[in-house]
Design brief:
The complex is a heterodimer of chains A (335) and B (434). Chain A is of the alpha/beta class and 335 residues long. Chain A is 36% helix and 13% strand. Chain B is of the alpha/beta class and 434 residues long. Chain B folds into two domains: 103 residues, Urease, subunit C, domain 1 (Roll), CATH 2.30.40.10; 307 residues, Metal-dependent hydrolases (TIM Barrel), CATH 3.20.20.140. Chain B is built from 13 helices and 18 strands. In chain B, strands 1, 2, 3, 4, 5, 16, 17 and 18 form an eight-stranded mixed beta sheet that branches. In chain B, strands 6-7-8-9-10-13-14-15 form an eight-stranded parallel beta sheet, with helices on both faces. Chain B has a two-stranded parallel sheet with strand order 11-12. In chain B, helix 2 links the parallel strand 7 and strand 8. In chain B, helix 2 packs parallel to helix 3, helix 4 packs across helix 6 and helix 6 runs parallel beside helix 7. The two termini of chain B are 31 Å apart. In chain B, 59% of the residues are buried. Classes of the chains: A alpha/beta (335), B alpha/beta (434). Bound molecules: zinc ion. The site of zinc ion has 6 residues of chain B, from loops.
Chain lengths: 335, 434
Amino acid sequence: MAEGERQRRHLLGLNGVSAADLIVLLDTAEALAEVSRREVKKLPTLRGKTVINLFMENSTRTRISFEIAAKRLSADSINVSAAGSSISKGETLADTARNLAAMSPDAIVIRHPSAGAARLLADIVDCSIINAGDGWHEHPTQALLDILTIRQYKREIAGLTVTIVGDILHSRVARSNVFGLLTLGARVRVSGPPTLLPPEFAALGVEIEYDLAAAVADSDVVMMLRIQRERQGENFFPSLDEYAHYYCLTEEILAEAKPDVIILHPGPMNRGIEISSGVADGPYSVMMNQVANGVAMRMAVLYQLIVPGADGIRGSKLAHPPKKSLPRLDAGGAA
Amino acid sequence: MSAGATRPPTVIRGGRVLDPSRGFDETADVLIEDGRIAAIDKPGLIQAEAADVIDAAGKIVAPGLIDMHVHLREPGYEYKETIASGCMSAVVGGVTSVACMANTNPVNDSGAVTSFIRERAATAGLANVFPIGAVSLGLQGEKLAEFGEMFEAGIVAVSDDGFSIMNSHLMRCALEYAKLFAIPVIVHEEDNCLCANGVVNEGVTAIQLGLPGMPAAGESAMVARDIELARATRGRLHIAHLSVAESLEMVRRAKDEGLNVTAEVSPHHLMLDERAVIGYNTNAKMKPPLRTAKDVAALREGLADGTIDTIATDHAPHHRDEKTVQFDAAAFGIVGLETLLPLCLELVQRGELKLERMIEALTVAPARNLNIDRGTLAIGAVADVVVFDPRKSWTLRATELASKSHNTPFDGWDLQGKVTHTLVGGRQVWEDES
Ligand SMILES: [Zn+2]
């Protein structure tokens, strides 16, 4: 078996992942979703494989979702969290990774408060690394399950107008969705107060609209992000009340969207702050489908990364680029 | 040295002698006697019995380079660098004088620490070391350190480098009080509130990587304040590692106005832009951060036209363990002494910088800024000399650096230009045998 090749496959983010690879992952998830509807919800596919969930930041939902995904594929999954691990005793992430790698896992799923933490692991250890959220950077499996949910309702991603609303600056969910949706041909609009949505985002290829009603207008999909209460203490907005006044998705604002609009939220929600209960519990909300798709999507990612020769993405861009020297700036400067 | 042990003279033969302090640029021989420049004459005219001869044909002979922004880490952080290892790194890079920053442990905020540094440097016997004292006690930004005591012990400037002086009154007093000793106040410009938690330039790369940014205004706003204070006090201000186009414009205006303001740029801010951090490369993490391509172009222009008078490395050694961590936890800074010359020469080869201007920014300009009697090959001057081959190609291997630390983003780069001989006080302290 081409051990080395297999072991260099990671999912660190959606930035740079090709449309073909995204579609393989989405199709695999679609096929695996069927398992969750069976009486016996288990496949023998990853029997004898080991998946370590290394969670250095609290996230019950994502961890449980990965855990169930691994179990349904018959993999052994082990949870390591910040509390009770040697991290709290001052061990570096690199050392933790080396120690875990010495136990020969097939994949490590990592959630970490620092952007780039998953990449650091991929540089150090040999097994597959799956990014389950690194700082503000990326949360690729969340975006994949969001895109899967959208695809189930809209069939095609290309041509859709998807609007993401909230704290864009600090959101890994927003970044991963932007990268994935753009690759698949959607038009992506982002909205939020200017303090949380710097104009540099436009360079990623999105449209910026600070007015919520205007942003929602004509949207096929509206994705609301959770607002972190700490941000008001950092002066990004004056109060949650004022935030809600301008950026809460209400039924009234939603009337501007397309009649068959769907509403996503990665959870957990702040009802009455970024989303009204009427919208959250209303007919356009697809949040429970997101949760259900989470398991299937993570099964698909584990399967595609761990199984040798799984269709499609071997040696693809999911593998992170090899290290090389920094390139020189072009002659004639740097302009 | 005892009087009996007189060294034989040295003759550096046939090199292109380039001394911007006197506008001298000719093929010539250089005679060194008793540690000083004794004569410079047409090739073959200097006769010296039993002299040591350095063949400099095809090479450039210049005043030893002066790096006015170096972190030697001793006392306190000897696992990163020692005064001896830092001085070795310096002379390998052709640098004969370094000015070392005060952020050691203990901080160089007293005459005792200043004296310790000078003694260690003398023991190492390689490069000249000119200590820089702290502006504030413990670099805390609150209470003025004893400039006088440190000056008596040998400091050439004061700086809280590594930190910005957010207290404007303290900054004003530093500029005024430093006048007593005619020493510059060197400033690291970074507004603490604007740059809080920032680890890269605020811009597109930061957005892509999800990293907290440091905005350009975090530097330029402080530069603006300090230029205003320099105007108000008529004090002597030197701006360290200038990195954004906006700061450059303000320095240009201040100089036009005749204010006593000087500025330096580091080779890495001339050679790399913010995209170097893509992939979370911790060896491209420094303060100020690598900026945009537009800033790089402006800095090159500012250096060429003299708005930025000096090139300084901000040599900042860190242990491998301090860089093999997640990006936000990694230490800021890179080593620079041994890549200084070839990186600058690359700008010359590209036609963006004149060789004489480059040597000036590495010799007479920093000597003037620090008011030290170096950076010249004038007859009678201390014979700090560098001989380098501007065409020699080599590949940088970080692990082969003489510095105790290997944190460089230039690992694996093919470079052109290599130091072949370094002389300090007439004594050869480095010869490249490769
Ligand atoms: Zn500094």
